[in-house]
């Protein structure tokens, strides 16, 4: 289909303010009378607090107040209410807030932190899910039965298992009796960090009029609003949350993270706004981490390669509080099929309390972790079957008529994974790979991927459009711009829907819960799809308002009228018409009497029939899928063991490209992040639960020099849900890189790796042991 | 210890009181409220705090205040002339190099320090400059595209001015 404003690259509405340094991020906000907080973190990752002495700190220069968790009577959380704003009786991870200083400057607040004296009684520390699950493990949370949790969740009280999710499809594990061949292996996608360039931060202001005003580097203002209103027992409308520009999210600025802690601190100085911004170290130790998933996977197949059964057991190192990890585990579990059909599935996901920072969302939300295993397994299985890896995959792709683990039927409109795979295969595998030389081994690897949103049934995105007197429109929504480019998408979709030039669509900047339409949170790569649908609905309503007024002006019936962006006109005689500029505020007749409604509209959209899981863990929990294929061409330096990704190819079926420059940018960035996960990134812990690398110079994220050449292509099979056929793409590009690269490593040197990151040391060790063996 | 220092920033002379333990970034952001310069790591790794001092790109988070007396400092706020953007800003805005925008001011200032001094900087020099900056969003390709467009514009301007 031909569109006027879609499929073209327009400059981002926020580009100019960002290149001129005028875009306002959280740390750039200065409020009258603002105070600054610094937060003390414990010396132990798991310990009872015996005593806290704040007297010396209180006497330090500039100090206004020293805060502890004493007296805090509430817990919070969106899924499991296990969080508390500040440690009370015990500390459960090394970055936990245990006390805070409020002072006139950040320097004064930080200087006084050292003067707080805390006595601890250390407890055993668990930094891995498996250890925390052992029968004799000390409980990290003693009274989990007292925590409120979503009714769909299943805790194992009296253990460190915060939740167990289990999905059964077909005959479950019994289905393996139909298999001719079985492969089994264990994989590890270790703890990582989103490591956005902007650290987390919040400002909270308890006001004299008993309202609370908050600014935060978060993508979920409405969750913060509702949660804090609940904790402080106030009407939701009396909490107002602002979201300024966000300097990258990638997951860990979703859900409620630091805001409750800053609110607790600020509640002690009513009348004064209190600001806190994480240091880079705190951004690692004291916000949300990512991944931490061990996957044990068993696949059964027929001799001809038809997949029959899948058993997945996920051990998720969920961190000291499981509220934000539990849905990552669930998404990882039911998406561990990858883009394949299995007749029988037994998928189990354990979310486990550990003495590490809480795990939360990371671009891909469980899919990269589980499909890292699936896509390595497909290569292992192909070898065992002595079958071509592309043929094996093709035989089993989730295409029209297939049924996924959740029991959802796939339709042609879900996208064409075969075509994605064929394109990538042609790009990367059509020619023979370079021959090993004195310096390098060469390898190529492939991965096919899929992702569903993992949202919530009630998740919706609101949209408000007002038409201005010149026919331009202003659009307000609650979607958080974190860099992904949703403002550009809003502008282009609204332009298309309202048939006006994108330059005439003014897109919102800051989000403010007082004025912004409701949005649950901007997650799951769902803004273009759900938000876009909301824009189309609001645009249709707006056009209807214009037609209703025009029908009175033109003395006819609404259904005889058409709209072209400039005029509302009679369909059978377009010369009978009225310009929209005369309809925007109602129509003023000759004698001044004004008729008709103001041209404004409001709408929202959620995914159709998205549901909770049933007793088998199945249900309409995906609803929409984006499929794709990715491949890596690598070089391994013999001398150093260093891996160079020379070329990376991706093809996704995105339904409809809205903005070519922007969608390419999204995939470029996602692939680069995932190369970081595959080759460099892991948050390292010692046995005591200390984080050993909480700085950029220790936790290496890919730099300019390490970014590969990329080929990125899109297939457009329109999706019936999304705006103009578009489906989600924001997270998908991170899924395939680690398995594709590890498959390429095998191709290069014949060594299978099951854990990332694959560092030069690991490669060298593997090469040396190969030599010994030979 | 509090001391008074005078320097030029974005073409204006300023005299401010600073604490001797401060870094240039503290003066720029917290004393002068020029918040375009970003604080990303505070240990000279990420490059978000880069400004131009005496013609050279420097990391403001590890430049002590005792180095700035009498200096000529340029921050991202000093590049545009009214609504007319510097060619580097235009190129970076149009090439897709802006996503979240937090690394952007530092990259813009790095490129300014390089290209205004050396319009014919080699590819290696460009790589060395951009490798000092972390970006989590773009995969760097659009940053390179923007840098190359800006370089061409600056080279053309140099020819026209000659």
Task: Explain this structure.
The complex is a heterodimer of chains A (774) and B (162). Chain A is 24% helix and 25% strand. Chain A has 16 helices and 29 strands. In chain A, the strands form 7 sheets. An 8-stranded mixed beta sheet of chain A has the order 3-5-1-12-9-10-11-20. A 5-stranded mixed beta sheet of chain A has the order 7-15-14-13-8. Chain A has a 4-stranded mixed beta sheet with strand order 16-27-28-29, sandwiched between helices. Chain B is an alpha+beta fold and 162 residues long. In chain B, strands 2-1-5-3-4 form a 5-stranded mixed beta sheet, sandwiched between helices. In chain B, strand 1 (2-9) and strand 2 form a beta hairpin. The longest helix of chain B has 21 residues, at 141-161. Chain B is globular, with a radius of gyration of 16 Å. The mean pLDDT of chain B is 97.
Shape designation of chain A: globular
Number of DSSP E strands of chain A = 29
Shape of chain B: globular
Distance between the termini of chain B: 49 Å
């Amino acid at each position: 289909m031909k569109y006027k404003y879609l499929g073209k690259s327009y400059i981002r509405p926020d580009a100019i303010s960002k290149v001129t340094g005028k875009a306002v991020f959280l740390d750039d906000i200065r409020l009258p009378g603002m105070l600054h907080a610094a937060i003390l973190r414990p010396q132990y990752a798991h310990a009872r607090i015996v005593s806290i002495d704040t007297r010396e700190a209180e006497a330090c220069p500039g100090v206004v107040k020293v805060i502890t968790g004493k007296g805090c009577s509430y817990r919070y959380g969106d899924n499991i209410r296990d969080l508390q704003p500040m440690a009370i009786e015990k500390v459960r991870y090394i970055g936990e807030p245990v006390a805070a200083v409020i002072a006139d400057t950040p320097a004064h607040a930080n200087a006084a932190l050292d003067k707080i004296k805390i006595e601890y009684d250390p407890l055993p520390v668990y930094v891995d899910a498996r250890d925390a699950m052992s029968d004799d493990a000390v409980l990290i949370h003693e009274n989990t039965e007292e925590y409120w949790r979503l009714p769909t969740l299943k805790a194992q009280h009296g253990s460190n298992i915060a939740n167990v999710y289990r999905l059964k499809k077909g005959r479950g594990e019994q289905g393996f009796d139909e298999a001719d061949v079985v492969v089994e292996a264990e994989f590890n996608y270790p703890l990582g960090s989103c490591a956005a360039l902007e650290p987390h931060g919040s400002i909270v202001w308890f006001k004299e009029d008993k309202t609370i005003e908050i600014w935060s580097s978060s993508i979920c203002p409405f969750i913060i609003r509702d949660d804090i209103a609940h904790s402080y027992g106030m009407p939701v409308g009396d909490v107002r949350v602002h979201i300024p520009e966000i300097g990258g999210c990638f997951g860990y600025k979703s859900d409620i993270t630091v805001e409750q802690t800053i609110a607790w601190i600020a509640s002690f100085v009513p009348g004064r706004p209190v600001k806190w911004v994480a240091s880079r170290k705190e951004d690692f130790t004291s916000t949300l981490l990512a991944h931490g998933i061990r996957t044990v996977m068993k696949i059964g197949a027929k001799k001809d390669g038809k997949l029959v059964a899948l058993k997945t057991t996920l051990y998720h190192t969920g961190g000291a509080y499981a509220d934000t990890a539990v849905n990552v585990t669930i998404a990882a579990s039911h998406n561990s099929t990858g883009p394949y059909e299995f007749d029988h599935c037994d998928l189990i996901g354990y979310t486990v309390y550990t003495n590490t920072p809480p795990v939360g969302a990371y671009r891909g939300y469980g899919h990269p972790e589980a499909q890292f295993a699936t896509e390595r397994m497909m290569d292992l299985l192909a070898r065992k079957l002595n079958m071509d890896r592309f043929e094996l995959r093709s035989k089993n792709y989730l295409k029209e008529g297939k049924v996924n683990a959740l029991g959802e039927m796939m339709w042609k409109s879900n996208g064409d994974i075969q075509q994605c795979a064929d394109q990538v295969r042609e790009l990367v595998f059509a020619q023979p790979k370079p021959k090993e030389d004195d310096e390098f081994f060469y390898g190529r690897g492939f991965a096919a991927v899929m992702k569903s949103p993992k949202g919530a049934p009630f998740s919706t995105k609101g949209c408000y459009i007002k038409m201005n007197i010149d026919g331009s429109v202003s659009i307000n929504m609650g979607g958080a711009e974190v860099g992904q480019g949703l403002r550009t998408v809003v502008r282009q979709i609204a332009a298309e829907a309202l048939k006006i030039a994108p330059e005439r669509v003014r897109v919102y900047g800051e989000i403010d819960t007082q004025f912004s339409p409701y949005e649950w949170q901007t997650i799951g790569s769902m803004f273009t799809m759900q938000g876009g649908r909301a824009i189309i609905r609001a645009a249709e309503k707006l056009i209807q308002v214009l037609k209703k007024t025009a029908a009175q002006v033109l003395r006819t019936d609404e259904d005889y009228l058409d709209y072209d962006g400039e005029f509302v006109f009679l369909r059978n005689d377009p010369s009978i018409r009225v310009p929209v500029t005369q309809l925007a505020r109602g129509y003023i007749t000759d004698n001044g009497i004004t008729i008709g409604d103001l041209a404004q509209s409001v709408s929202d959209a959620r995914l159709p029939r998205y549901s909770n899981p049933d007793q088998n863990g199945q249900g309409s929990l995906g609803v929409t899928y984006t499929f794709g294929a990715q491949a890596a061409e690598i070089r391994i330096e013999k001398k150093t063991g260093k891996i160079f990704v020379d070329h990376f190819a991706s093809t996704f079926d995105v339904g409809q490209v809205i903005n070519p420059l922007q969608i390419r940018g999204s995939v470029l960035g996602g692939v680069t992040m995932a190369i970081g996960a595959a080759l460099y990134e892991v948050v390292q812990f010692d046995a005591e639960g200390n984080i050993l690398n909480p700085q950029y110079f220790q936790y290496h994220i890919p730099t300019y020099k390490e970014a590969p050449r990329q080929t990125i292509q899109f297939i457009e099979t329109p999706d019936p849900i999304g705006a103009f056929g578009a489906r989600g793409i924001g997270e998908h590009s991170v899924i395939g890189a680690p398995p594709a690269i590890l498959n390429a490593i095998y191709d290069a040197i014949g060594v299978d790796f099951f854990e990332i990151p694959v560092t030069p040391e690991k490669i060298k060790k593997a090469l040396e042991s190969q030599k010994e063996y030979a | 210890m509090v001391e008074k220092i005078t320097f030029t920033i974005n073409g204006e002379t300023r005299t401010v009181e600073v604490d001797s333990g401060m870094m240039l970034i503290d003066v720029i952001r917290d004393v002068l409220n020029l918040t375009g310069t970003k604080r990303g790591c505070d240990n000279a790794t990420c490059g978000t705090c880069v400004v131009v001092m005496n013609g050279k790109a420097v990391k403001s988070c590890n430049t002590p205040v005792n180095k700035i007396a009498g200096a000529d400092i340029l921050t991202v706020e000093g590049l545009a002339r009214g609504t007319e953007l510097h060619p580097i800003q235009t190129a970076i805005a149009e090439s897709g190099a802006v996503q979240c925008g937090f690394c952007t001011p530092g990259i813009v200032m790095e490129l300014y320090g390089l290209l205004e001094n050396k319009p014919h900087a080699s590819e290696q020099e460009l790589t060395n400059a951009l490798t000092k900056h972390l970006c989590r969003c773009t995969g760097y390709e659009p940053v390179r595209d923007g840098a190359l467009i800006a370089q061409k514009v600056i080279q053309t301007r140099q020819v026209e001015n000659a």
